[in-house]
């Protein structure tokens, strides 16, 4: 643990006051209503899909925040909000004290884009299949005018490839000539080209087998140690999350329901959903043991349950859960949104 | 016997005064008859619904009508019908004004006699009467067809789709662009050699399809066969071709008005104003080869502006300047264009027989003497308005003479443009005061012999001036099955009374 | 007697620059009612093995050698029409992606009824009744009503259950499941795995389960086969393979898994990458990455040989080499 | 659904107005019909008078405005050639064109789809190569040449089919049909084949390409894995999934068939709208041309609408009520 | 030159070319056609466009091998005494130029508009797609008639150049629609792909993304469509010439030659009809076969 914290403490002096990444009440709504004329004729209301609904968190420099949650709960949307692929419907994202979304729209946005990079969920899809690796990795360098001399660019690309464990000789190949793990590393190399400070990783290892996954995770950790990178890490795989993160946020239907230190969350989960999620992890060494899947059906995001969105599946739900939406509250350094926890109906 | 025939386009209406269109007039003539008509063999005017006529005064023609003529509905043809019909042709919605221009009024004298008053002496009145057909007054009044169909308005009169005349055939069925069926009128007043009881007309616009229909036996007769296919048809044992000179002359006109030609490399002057240049262009054309090769014999080379059937024509005016490339080159050099010049050249491509090919061949011949004609061809809808806007430097035109009288051509083609149809197709704007004087004299000359001589003189003047370059008289081929007997008419019309199917 | 026997299976892709041998001498068998897990590096040939068994190799891929026997009958060379009758009826298949496996244009009921009627002599009404029962068995609520819905109207987990219902429709004896849960999150994954297990237990069907997730293997399978570069590297009872792996690759694989319970700064990793198919080294394909490679490993290709409770294709376990193997057995996991 | 149709019809009107506007902008260049009406001998004064009477001397904007005003009252003017209301002319000609287009489209579909399926399933087999190459003749030869060659062979040489016309027609109210008599079918064969050849090629190639894609999808593989019969897999599952893009193109092409019919109708003297149009063009019959173009625009929009509605019938995903869920 | 050819033959596409007899045959035919067309002035025995050399007396001579033929005119002569072989070469020159130019033009317009519509969506998309609807309603023939009318009215004296302009413009004006639709469709798919979003995250400007990322990835179907379109454009040109809006009669294109030949179908002078038709079929067939091959070769799944 201390090893992990070290790089953070070195940079802690510079950012002791404010965290590098601050998301405040981030919300993104998608308008999925039928066209206007249809609505008028069929007397239908507007349909809004709250993909992300009031999510707030902070990440200190050199730290990793992991986001977990069911498919469709809004993790990728959060990631896209942070890198500016979506504009927030409400809320603010402050990066190093600067309103990022205001900046994205201006000329300085380029500067910000240099500092914030993203690794996409599908490594193959995120690489242009018609470009050579050399061009892919060099694109951010050229785009931000960091280097102009072709030879210098080539050297830098080689360096980057080497730093992610690939050979500079691979530069002339196309993405399809690499294996899944190698492609993932290419997209990491590209993301690192501009010396970013904040890296958003959306399920970077979901398609990989364990040995390649281990290689990728190790590279990421090494980089964090060496360059003090800050990560937002999204994954389904809780074992991986546990390995890489400092803090873990659990999302359910567009909202953050629990946000805690890694060890606290894994050792003493509070929110009933977190508990169910942890119970659902297959255990390696007790072969043949059945686990308890999360009960009930995934709710429809267009028509979320009233009150606490989790109440139809929650064993602890009561009338209040049905009616009133719980707010995030801090208990013993853990932020939870649950009436049962607040009321002490669930013990630690 | 059934006679099945075909040509490119269908008639647009059965209303005899609604549109003036050659093919349509020819078909109408089977059902509606005129007072007088050209004899198919001699091309002399002969009586039809009129039996005799006398020029009472220079402006009054008295016409005696045939008795015992019955319309298809059985009613009698009377002077009322004749007056009505002529007045109908003069009505505001009629488009037969080219034929009625000279007529002032028509008056019934008695049941069998009418008087036609002209505005001035009209030497071609009888010729014009051949195109003015007779309709039943009672039938028109009963069926709301008193006025000719106005093409500008919605109202369709009965006569548009129905026909009721005195002719040898009666309309049975008409599906536009598909089928037109005429049947024999058993009560026709005259006698005719024809043994046809039914005429079926099917317009086929694609010439190849039309020929295919003839070859496959689906039609007996094609009015406008493809000239390319004639040798084949002539050699086909089941088919034959009937050629006849049409009274239409093909010639080239030249812009002799502008001071500088549009689209020419000669600046500041108009080479076509120089008679030597015009003559050079003339002599560079090998009319015989064009007639033989391009026209496959469908052109009779001529040096005159009118066909032999036309009054005023003589062997003398018919003679061409000889084809002589050297002479042409010399003429050009004399005129100051030893290396030739560039000039615009426009032709229609769907009006006359092989029009586009002729122009191409002529362009090549001119190229020999250094005249670089820039040929453009276009369909007649765009072509005629274009030349009438004087946009072409050299243009092709064919001029038929329905009146068989050279004045018709002279007035339209070589008279300086003016009032009352003077020079209305003189789009090259040739102008010669001597010519104008001659023509004005012909207009009022009442002695036929003297008049003819004057016309010949005018034609010769045109030749001397090379106002236009005549090329040939069009020969019209008709293709048909061997068992068909028809008489070829110079106006490219079938005389329905003479058709025989053996 | 085993239900399925795969003997010396070789799959090749004839191509422009020579023939690629994607599966090389793969042998294993599955007993009735058994769940065999198949794990291995990406590109090792897991999916190809599954595809060969159901006879759906995509051309130009072809079975170049070896036999596949179902209940003692060879099925790899059956004529097209007979093989078709084996598929679905004898061997069911489940593919990775639940959305793309279902024809989006037909209701799930239609697809179920169609499958049932192809294989079983039942009337349409009976088939529908059976389809509803299948949906109920696979845990879809309100099956009577949902049967007429279209695939897109179901969530991913439910769709995967429909796919399972389709695979089970004609009560096959063997189910080949190729990464049935990769696209799903843990909670749905758990549901599906539980379902698969109960169905096996109740119907006595055997399952070949291909997956990346060791947790799933551990929890579900009776035996596990580990594949590497087109060959079976190790095969044996699941507890043994996971806890006492015999092949160096398996060992490496196991150690790569991030553990929920153990905090580690760096994950263990196998250095290097799997060789490309056209550049497989002589001898043991794993030798360039193997810490214990013997001179012999670069020369001769090892076949599966007994190694403790499992069988491994590794010279370390050659009879008499047991001593080597035990000394070489390094800091094995747990 | 209703809203969808309403919106598309609204767009149709806009498209038609745009088409009419462009048409009128260009009509001043197509020539002068007056020469046909008065004959060649008319004096310039008579011509000018006639042009004025027909309103041809006015700027196109004014002509367009008059057209719009009349069109709004359901009147599309009078044919300058035939002097008959254009709407009546088109109504007379429409059945012939529609019959021809539909027969050709059916022919193309009935022959083209199975050929495409076959070529996809047996990719590389001799017969499918033959299909692929021979079908190219259909797109390599101009329509008029194909038509005339067919006439030459089947009408002139063999005498099996008539070379022109529509044959006997039966009137069913205002609709005339040639499809009730053997003679009518006899007449429609050659033109329909001519018209269908291009579409056939296109459909065949399209079906083949789409089938090749679809055959590689997981659900086809899964359908095979379920042991479904080849028939069920190829025609039940695969073909239906190729239908959406095939329908799009076929829809557009059906509109195209009507446009292409211009040439076929000319060659075979088929008394349809195409023939009417080409005659209108040679006559500069502006009202007919304007109405025809608007009608074609309408046909395109309607066909696109029908195609889109067919999507709903074929693809349940589009039918989904977004709010519905489950 | 040789080495690039070698390298190409060694690439994947080159390999599939080498192993496809159809592709090789098609390429050879296409090459011969293009070569003869491009170098017509040097290859052709006569210059049929030089009117001064035409001799009307030589009109309609049959091919050299028949009784009346002359070796001076290997494939015979047409109605103006033009050597058919030379006319074919010169005509193909025009036809290929018109075909290629109009395809290039419609590809440029169509791809640009399709990209814009697909990438930016919204009202621009709606507007452009309605524009497509409008364009669809005008058959190429009519567009040609109208453009010819406008062109002649505007430039009454620019004959030949204008004719080509009219042809190219009218073919591309009706041709761009399908490119626009295809490209728009693919762009809609492509712009959702993560590599495009990755470029946005990097900070690449939208137009640049469109050009450098989206364009190469939507070009595949466009290229195949374009090869087919070259053939179709030649045929359209032939059809337009049939209707009299094509190339000037003194410099006949392949299409014009076919139209002329059309008049000789029944006349027994078969060579005037057959040869131009055969050349057109050869060109169209070879280009189409090459397109077919290219479509399969560029599809990695079929390789
Ligand atoms: N562009 C969009 N338009 C409409 N709805 C969207 C859009 N993007 C995402 N959504 C919806 O927002 C919700 C959250 O999607 P998101 O992709 O963030 O989920 P996720 O947590 O990343 O899921 P997964 O684990 O499957 O990747 C989903 O219901 C999705 O359907
Ligand atoms: N069509 C093909 N042509 C050539 N090689 C192929 C083809 N399909 C598969 N392969 C090769 O066969 C090998 C085995 O592929 P397979 O799909 O079985 O891998 P896998 O073990 O299922 O991997 P993953 O875990 O990534 O699904 C791979 O190396 C792959 O490159
Ligand atoms: Mg996601
Ligand atoms: Mg796989
Ligand atoms: Ni143990």
TrEMBL record, chain A:
Q: This protein's superkingdom? A: Bacteria
Any stretches that span the bilayer, and where are they? none
User: Is Nucleotide-binding given among the entry's keywords?
Assistant: yes
Report domain ABC transporter positions: 21-278
Entry's Gene Ontology molecular function annotations: ATP binding; ATP hydrolysis activity
User: Which InterPro entries would you find in this protein's record?
Assistant: AAA+_ATPase, ABC_transp_ATP-bind, ABC_transporter-like_ATP-bd, ABC_transporter-like_CS, Oligopep_ABC_C, P-loop_NTPase
SUPFAM superfamilies on file: P-loop containing nucleoside triphosphate hydrolases
Q: Which PROSITE patterns match?
A: ABC_TRANSPORTER_1, ABC_TRANSPORTER_2
| Any one Gene Ontology BP term | peptide transport
* UniProt keyword terms in alphabetical order: ATP-binding, Cell membrane, Membrane, Nucleotide-binding, Transport
The question of whether Acetylation is a record keyword is answered with no
Q: Which CDD domains match?
A: ABC_NikE_OppD_transporters (cd03257)
Give the family per the record.
Answer: Belongs to the ABC transporter superfamily.
Alphabetized PANTHER family for the sequence: D,D-DIPEPTIDE TRANSPORT ATP-BINDING PROTEIN DDPF-RELATED (PTHR43776:SF7), TRANSPORT ATP-BINDING PROTEIN (PTHR43776)
> Can you name this protein?
Peptide/nickel transport system ATP-binding protein
Instruction: Look up and give the organism this protein is from.
Output: Tepidicella xavieri
The organism that produces this protein has a lineage beginning with: Bacteria, Pseudomonadati, Pseudomonadota, Betaproteobacteria, Burkholderiales
UniProtKB/TrEMBL annotation, chain C:
Do you know which SMART domains this protein is assigned to?
AAA
Instruction: List GO molecular-function terms, semicolon-separated.
Output: ATP binding; ATP hydrolysis activity
Report membrane topology: Peripheral membrane protein
For this UniProt record, give its keywords in alphabetical order, as a comma-separated list: ATP-binding, Cell membrane, Membrane, Nucleotide-binding, Transport
Q: Name the predominant localization.
A: membrane
Domain ABC transporter, residue spans: 4-254
**GO BP annotations listed:** peptide transport; transmembrane transport
Q: Where in the cell is it found?
A: Cell inner membrane
UniProt xrefs under Pfam families: ABC_tran, oligo_HPY
The terms describing its cellular component in GO are:
plasma membrane
Give the record's family classification: Belongs to the ABC transporter superfamily.
Recorded hits in NCBIfam families, A to Z, give: oligo_HPY (TIGR01727)
Protein name, as recorded: Peptide/nickel transport system ATP-binding protein
Q: Tell me what organism the protein belongs to.
A: Tepidicella xavieri
Automatic annotation (TrEMBL), chain D:
UniProt-listed GO biological process terms: transmembrane transport
Question: How is it placed in the membrane, per its record?
Answer: Multi-pass membrane protein
Keywords, ordered alphabetically: Cell membrane, Membrane, Transmembrane, Transmembrane helix, Transport
Subcellular compartments: Cell membrane
Q: Which residues cross the membrane?
A: 12-30, 100-121, 133-156, 188-207, 243-270, 290-314
- Record-linked Pfam families: BPD_transp_1, BPD_transp_1_N
Q: What InterPro entries does its record include?
A: BPD_transp_1_N, MetI-like, MetI-like_sf
Q: Which residues form the ABC transmembrane type-1 domain?
A: 94-311
Example of a GO cellular component annotation carried by this entry: plasma membrane
> What family, per the record?
Belongs to the binding-protein-dependent transport system permease family.
Stated name of the protein = Peptide/nickel transport system permease protein
In its UniProt entry, the species of origin is given as Tepidicella xavieri
UniProtKB/TrEMBL annotation, chain E:
Stretches that traverse the bilayer: 21-44, 94-124, 136-155, 161-179, 218-243, 270-294
Cross-referenced InterPro entries: BP-dependent_transpt_permease, MetI-like, MetI-like_sf, OppC_N
PROSITE patterns named among the record's database cross-references? ABC_TM1 (PS50928)
| Residue span(s) of domain ABC transmembrane type-1 | 92-291
Q: Where located?
A: Cell membrane
- Name the SUPFAM superfamilies on file: MetI-like
User: How does the entry describe its membrane topology?
Assistant: Multi-pass membrane protein
A biological process from GO: transmembrane transport
The protein's matches in CDD domains, at most eight in alphabetical order, are given as: TM_PBP2
Q: Which family does it belong to?
A: Belongs to the binding-protein-dependent transport system permease family.
Q: What is this protein called?
A: Peptide/nickel transport system permease protein
**Which organism's genome codes for this protein?**
Tepidicella xavieri
UniProt lineage? Bacteria, Pseudomonadati, Pseudomonadota, Betaproteobacteria, Burkholderiales
